[in-house]
Specification:
Length: 283
């Protein structure tokens, strides 16, 4: 059957009646039953399945406006570049308006695809600097003024860096889903996970925009901090909880990770000191 959007007048084809959304502008459309059809039973929410929220057709309460498709989710109509850029711009520069408008019920892989594109752009922009060994120095550089050895170590570092970048690009979806699972577990502990794992994935993925500018020297740390702030905005909006709870949800796993890394580092230092002391006593 065909339905017409009351906002933008777009005519779209659908195979069901009831509350749904315009694929062009995201406006809620109530599609009537076709004449002579049997009464439909309970409909499966859009995006049902693993990671789907509990959206039933009405915009979730608590938002500042109606929930709608993001520009990225309307990229077939807006164009790939405009859909991406509008989503990136709105998520970074107007998060208080953007995240309350994001629907928590749609399949999480749309948002994951967006975050993957963000990471891919970051990889492409940083690859020349990493390949030339200009970003950081994990290998020794002082070889008594031997330029050949220094160039060789620079090339080796660049090769390892490029390998790490390519690996991160391939493993990014798994890493993002794993991190979202950890954050969602934290949300469950705080009693703020009512919209499901998929809503948490969408919140974190649409908050990944600052990754594009994270490679800029002296700005990367600020971009990382701002990314955490956007995570809090996203979780608060898509899980329909307070920003205080959302801050606890996002910061708790980070604090646990920092503590674990600190404990491992301290254990390593203690082991090295112990080995050094045992060696000196044996002498």
């Amino acid at each position: 059957m065909e339905a017409r959007c009351p906002r933008c007048s777009t005519v779209f084809t659908t195979d069901r009646s009831g509350i749904q959304f315009c694929p062009n502008c995201g406006q809620q459309v109530d599609v009537p039953e076709p004449p002579g059809s049997w009464a439909a039973g309970p409909e499966q929410p859009m995006g049902a399945g693993f990671g789907a929220g509990r959206f039933t057709g009405e915009p979730p309460p608590g938002g500042s406006g109606p929930r709608e498709l993001t520009p990225w989710e309307r990229r077939k109509d807006l164009g790939l570049f405009q859909g991406f850029f509008e989503t990136w711009k709105r998520s970074i520069f107007s998060p208080q308006e953007f995240f309350p408008s994001v629907r928590p019920d749609l399949p999480w892989w749309e948002a994951l695809f967006y975050a993957w594109v963000v990471h891919g752009i970051t990889v492409v922009l940083s690859a020349p600097f990493v390949g030339l060994g200009w970003l950081g120095s994990t290998f020794p550089r002082n070889f008594g003024g031997d330029p050949q050895m220094e160039n060789a170590m620079r090339a080796l570092q660049g090769g390892f860096g490029l390998g790490w970048l390519l690996s991160s690009l391939l493993l990014f979806p798994l890493g993002m889903l794993a991190w979202a699972a950890i954050v969602h577990l934290s949300a469950m502990l705080f009693g703020a996970a009512s919209n499901g794992y998929g809503a948490t994935v969408r919140a974190l993925c649409y908050a990944s925009g600052p990754g594009v500018i994270a490679i800029i020297p002296c700005i990367g740390f600020i971009a990382a901090i701002y990314g955490i702030v956007l995570d809090i905005f996203g979780v608060a909006s898509l899980q329909q909880t307070s920003q205080g709870k959302a801050a606890g949800i996002v910061l708790l796993p980070i604090a646990v990770l920092i503590c674990c890394c600190g404990a491992v580092f301290a254990l390593g230092i203690a082991s090295m000191i112990g080995l050094a002391g045992a060696g000196s006593r044996s002498l």
